[in-house]
Amino acid sequence: YQSVDIAAVSAAASLHADRTAVVFDSGSSAHAGPSASLLYRELVQLSGELSAVFLRRYCDSEFSRLSSRILQCPAAYMPLDPEAPALLSAQVMSQCGLKYCAVETRLMQQFQATLSRYLTFEVCATLPKFKLTLIHIQKLSCAKPEPGTKQDGHQEAGCGASLLESGAAHGELAYVLHTSGTTGPPKMVRVPHRCIVPNILHLRSLFQMSSSDVVFLASPLTFDPSVVDIFLALSSGAQLLIVPSLIKKMPRRLAGLLFKEHKVTVLQVTPTLLLSFGHHTLKEEVLSPSSSLRVLALGGEACPPPALLRSWKHEENKTCIFNLYGITEVSCWACCYKIPETLLRSSDLGEPSVPLGAPLMDTEVDVRDELGRVVTEGEGQLFLGGGGRVCLLDGEGTVASGTMRATGDWVKIREQQLHFQGRTDRTIKRNGKQVNLDHLQQLVLALPRVAACAVGLHSSSRLLAFVVSSSSSSSVRQHWEEGGGAGGDEKRRILEQLSVLLPSHGIPDSLELLPALPLTPHGKVDLEALMRSYERQRERLGFPRGDVHTLKQRLQALWKVCPLCDAQSNFLLSGGDSLKAVRLCEDIGAAVGAPSPQLLEVLLDGTFSELWRHVALMLEGRPSSSHQAKKRHADPPSAAAKREWKPAEKRAVRVLQRAGRVTQMNMTDSSETLEDAGLRGAESHRAVKVEMSLSWASDTGRCVDASPMLLVIDGANQSSDGCRTTVFIGSHSHRVQALDLGTGGVLWERVLGGRVEASAAASPCGSLIIVGCYDGCIYFLSADSGETRWTFRTGDAVKSCPAVDAVSGLVLAGSHDGNVYALDPQAQRCVWKRHCGGAVFSSPHLHDSPRQLYVATLAGRLLSLNPDSGDESWSYHRGVPFFSSPNCSSSCVVIGSVDGNICCLTHTGELLWQFPTQGPVFSSPCFLREQHRLLCGSHDGRLYCLSAADGSEVWTFQTCSRVYSSPCVFHSCGGGALVALASTDGTVWILDAANGQMLASHALPGELFSSPVVCGGCVVIGCRNDYVYALNLTNKEET
């Protein structure tokens, strides 16, 4: 079989030597360079160069004789995940007796840094053309576990070297993998050529592969379907398309790459990954009448029911859809079923599942009952095997003839077809009755308007269903981002449909509507992420004390048994049962923060009004310190206001905010700000090489539109540089996080009373963090612990960042109620307020000289106020809203306008100049003070560098999407001024401030409306995929 495998690829390479074999598309703009590709002759050259090194070391004397058969080098390969923990990689390498490793040259430093404690190696060869470095593992040990990890005593240096040498001979093994771990503990699987080649040959025939095909490598190399993708393409003379894993998480961009740019013809994916495209894209692009896709092969998860498949496919689409089934232990696929058009076009809703299909070449299939007897009709566990199709697991040296592997999957034989029923380890007991979670999942998927579903068990008892609705995905996403439950009517409709199909013990305790299901790296549903999301939802469920109306609403939402409940409704008489009552008590107990022994009795025997009163009494008796200091819910303003607070002793404080704004307070020498120091030397600019890599990410639970604020306190600890830097940022999850800049660790987290879009500010002494919230409050929190020191309530949402007056200590904040408030946090009072004639969305800006406060409104007014009294000095009326925040130099004030202009005024309110862009300007300007220039982005996708004197254009930089956020100017050691910029497509850019040349870019998996802030070689930014990211910058002078 090895010769068959190699012969097929060799034959394709000789027939199509000058055709493209592999294409890598980065998915980025032209700035990232053209797509990389390999011709078939270059692929053979790469194989030859790698094999030559192996053969010289194995058999120097025979090298000349074997050179003509270089592709038959007797070696197996094993993919390594660069993102995997170092100890795990080292243990895997040790168990396999790994001798050589081909590393991307750009990852060599990371490889050495993470694995140096476990191995020593030498560089055998570098292949500059292919950007690869080949290393020889000289000594490898897995005997040094991390603190707190458990290790068997027999694992020593070279402990697993025999795994590749036992059983199958070297030349018989094709590759080594771990199982994904989704069906049990991960296993080491060694796959001989004779096991995988029949898969390639049979599927190549079933899919009618030809040299004109384009195959998308959908799976990571650590997942065995990738082997099928690679060899289906290369043995047919077809083209293999590869994209970064990050692009796979961006459905719209991925669909464009696959079906518009590269015209993919063969797609092998998990159903969940396919569903991530969304119903509209599936029907209008992937499975449209004009789609390039010939073959869609679904595997790795249960196949969606026919009704759902039918809803994805346009009536005139010609794509053939296959259902693949297999386990890694009998690599890769065991069964295949071509779904007939008659089934897809049938209106019969009685066909609940798609058959697994017939066994593939050399594969044997058995179904056995619980006693091990073969079943020919009915239900049982599926077993797979057959000849050489069985792989070697862990320490197995050989496999006995006739070995059949248990799959752990329960199937039903109906009309000589196998139908998947569910995992044997996914069967649970509820009220003494069995429920299979996979069967329940398939039933939910078959319901109308359900696009995707995942069913799981939380804390071993609570049955949860996570559903993506095909009919209201946009409304679900809106509700989800606004922080509440989503789609109560839709939930009830689905639960009512299930109650017709299932007994009460089979109905989920909770049904959560989501905009999309999260994926694992292998493209399967990430159940762990779903459970974490559910836990966050329960944390946000806390009942308010004193707010009777909100308490009633939230209790009604939990009641769930009927659409409406009046005061005299009884839970059981309204359709509830004892199991639902227990679950409701658990929900209420979690929301209150303490259980009540009488709660279940009140629920079963009492009315809704009695339940309401009982919960109110529970709340009154709840201790105020029920939450831990590191994760506290917001205190009511009345309670928070009673706390005493005294300002901390004076410390040297630096505050870094968006638009490159740096404020220094209590410094021993304040003649020079950090910003000025960072920009000085720009005239003696030297070219730098900038590299950007991910340092850490923190999950906030919802989209992050707020910009980070960094607080640097000198002498805060005993670190080498004598200072502590903390990142403060809010999220639409209602949370505010304090994160350590160096590690990303959560120092504390607060849940406020609404979404947080506003960026935070800091008090002059650095002991208070001030942040506005959608609930209309301005929170004054302890920088050290997150505890509330004071809360001030305005008349509407607060979405702007306050300005802090270092002279008076006043906090100057705008609100959507149209007012600007001057707040004294020490006295806990409002000193003055001024109505500005319109909602204040943008952040007020306080200028030192002349001493003026600039405020812009959505009514199109820019006002100059006296910061001590609130009196108006002058106002400028534009007639269109201002979303951009004003910024100042010593001679002017600049602001962007949604009419597309960047406007510059004198400090007396006279318009100096305006510069027209090609789109609305939401970005706030940032100054290059030493060069008398300013930077500002626009929705036309450009960053503009303008002369502050006359508004003339110095340079522009074109991104690949809109620029909503503000640029950040910072200093590169020895390299002058640089600019950090974000575009809404998720790209972070680093530019040379002198000429706008791009020095680096990094793509994040979500939209960016947050503005970057740079400190100590680290770019911090929030993302709409719920995370806050820190990106490391490394600057190297060009030689």
UniProtKB/TrEMBL annotation:
Annotated ranges, domain AMP-dependent synthetase/ligase? 72-386
Family assignment from sequence similarity = Belongs to the ATP-dependent AMP-binding enzyme family.
Q: Which SMART domains match?
A: PQQ (SM00564)
Q: Where is the Pyrrolo-quinoline quinone repeat domain?
A: 700-1033
One Pfam family of this chain: AMP-binding
Q: Which PROSITE patterns match?
A: AMP_BINDING
One GO biological-process annotation of the entry reads: lipid metabolic process
Region annotation (Disordered) ranges: 623-646
Output this protein's name. Answer: Aminoadipate-semialdehyde dehydrogenase
Query: Which InterPro entries did the record assign?
Result: AMP-bd_C_sf, AMP-binding_CS, AMP-dep_synth/lig_dom, ANL_N_sf, Beta-ala_Activ/Resist, PQQ_b-propeller_rpt, PQQ_rpt_dom, Quinoprotein_ADH-like_sf
Keywords from the named record: Lipid metabolism
